[in-house]
Amino acid sequence: MSSGKHGGGQGGRPAVDTSLIDAFGGVRGMVDMTVPGFVFVVVFTVTKNLSVSSFSAFGVTLLLALVRVVRRETLKHAFGGVLGVGISAYIAMKSGKAQDFYLPSMIYGVALGVAYAVSALVRWPLIGVFLGPLLGENMTWRTQNPGRLAAYTKATWVWVALFALRAAILFPLYWAGNVTWLGVAKIGLGVPPWLVAIYLSWLILSKAPPPIKVVPDADEQPEAEQPGAEQPGDRQPGTVPGPEQPAGRDALADLDQR
Predict the structure, then answer these.
(1) What share of the chain is helix, strand, coil (3-state, %, to 5)?
(2) Nearest residue to 174 via CA among 111, 104, 110, 102
(3) Which residues, other chains included, contact 222 with Cβ-Cβ below 8 Å and sequence gap of 6+?
(4) Of 111, 224, 228, 237, whose CA is between 20 and 30 Å from 63?
(5) HSE of 15 in the Cβ direction (CA atoms, 13 Å)?
């Protein structure tokens, strides 16, 4: 692989925004992760029954996954939600403490914050690792584009701040055992700060140098696409293929076109 032209300036900025949203699961992924917690806190506040609340949240998660199956959408985040809510419900029911329903996701958030911070410190910011392949630049930003390396590092610190903010608010509520306010805070610290982090990351990247696109080398291109290569339609009727042009290739090409 070799680096090609820089991506367009203004024309490429909306793609960065879309790629950022997609890299973090999209709006639908955030909904899948938010709704079960909302159902849990509402049901628990009304019934004060941990089992009913846990099964209600898990049932909603299964329903969301089923909707994705019916609509033939990606199941990665749906299955992740089913697994996460299942673990959370099990831990809460096992301990008998409703606040433990939120503990696994809180610990996961802290782990993500640490991972993002470490990646920025060692100059492998995770935002760049996630977005590089999506934007067609792979890892050229790290070795050939110092401006984008700096931008990806700043954007990664934005997400570190988000994870730190969540932990600073959620853990005191967890230790206080205030399930209702913990659930409300968990929901409030979900989509809104996520959108803010997306926007700030986009602002940072929109001011960075454009990505250096990666294009295949000539020796990595398919034979039919290389300059001078004989195309299926170039051969005159009645000619016999040479040893480097198997007779069955035209038939395979025709089948591919169909």
Answers:
(1) 70, 5, 25
(2) 102
(3) none
(4) 111
(5) 15
